Amino acid sequence: MAATIGLVQGQPRAFSFAPGVRSDLRLLQVDETLLQEIVEKGVVVKGAEDEEAVLCTSQRTYAMKLVETTNLQLLVRPSETAAQFRSADSAEPIQVAATSGSHIELVEVAPRLGPLRRLLWERPYGPQDEGEGADGDGDTAMAEAEGPGGRRAAGYTFDELLAEVQASPAELRAALAAEGAVELDGRWRAVEGGYLGELLEMVLLTAQQAGMPLGALRGGELLEALRADGYHPNVVGHCLTVYARRVDAGAAGSAEAGPAAAGDGVWAVDETKVCIHFAHKVLAAARGSMPLQDFTAAWARAVPAGMSPRPDMLAAEALVDGTGPEARISAFPAAALPHEPAERFAALFRRRPRWEWTHLEPYLAGLKVPGQSVEALLIRFARASQPTPDAPLVYSAR
């Protein structure tokens, strides 16, 4: 930098303020790694009038903190004739083009995904959409009703979601997968839970009728068989990605093998996920809580033959209150809880004022806050107590 503006050690230089000195510029403090990413891939600053602005790279999201400085920073332009100056007498004054009394500091934060869930569930895919696009030509006859901002109510493109959600592209794709969203004709939508569960049961029934073992479902045959019943191939493929995993030798893995590739693969049903589906179905029929003993018997009858439901499958899916013959169970899926730590802890303590760690831990597993461990979140949002020295720790709201 010294050479750029013609500074030589031991030779002072005068400076002057150029006409129209700017004071509206803000310096952005970054490390070399982040600087390189900004130069190569660019960044986007996001934030509505009622939101705190964030800076998103291709992979991460950063909060932008304005840091005031005690010293005025002078921003100067490089001197085109710097190399000619070798003494203070021959050097022109350095011109100050702008001043700044603060800079922006970046702090990595978790993506703010609250709006994503709202947008995906504006018009989820369900029974009302059966038959649309079942021919697989990519011309799904979506409703053209206008939604907020003039966009179609039947889903959003990835770019539209990226513009609305404070997250990087990589974080948004991960969140879409976590939300169980499906892309149909370039637009992302949630899928109604009840409808997806019914489709799962149709997949299992169709596989049984075709003599397919649960560990070797032939995706192509399933898609073709269910297409005739009006099911969109991509939604059937999505169902397979949710409740099964690819096991054929050419598969890159279930995470990479999306709905569009389902017809090319062989799939093995995920016993835990299927059992969880039938557990929720039994609990939904009870319209609330039900005796644990009754639930256990009904759950065992509901799952497909050959599957063995276990209580540990329901961690972060259901809660048991009471003990012995009086114990009752009710659905409480972690997937329905807020993404933000403060909101999630509030929801957890509304449901149960006091939590033992073994019950609380599964509901915190999905919380990912850069720079903060689960232990740090517990200290911030919960209070630990121990009724007796040999009793387990119990957490309550702080």
From TrEMBL:
Q: Does the keyword Membrane apply?
A: no
Question: Sorted alphabetically, which keywords does the UniProt record give?
Answer: DNA replication
Any one GO CC term of this protein is: chromatin
* Stretches the record annotates as Disordered: 124-150
Q: Sorted alphabetically, which InterPro entries does this protein's record hold?
A: Dcc1
Domain of life of the organism in this record? Eukaryota
Q: Name one GO biological process term.
A: maintenance of mitotic sister chromatid cohesion
What PANTHER family does the annotation carry?
A: SISTER CHROMATID COHESION PROTEIN DCC1 (PTHR13395:SF6), SISTER CHROMATID COHESION PROTEIN DCC1-RELATED (PTHR13395)
Q: Which family does it belong to?
A: Belongs to the DCC1 family.
The name this protein goes by in its record:
Sister chromatid cohesion protein DCC1
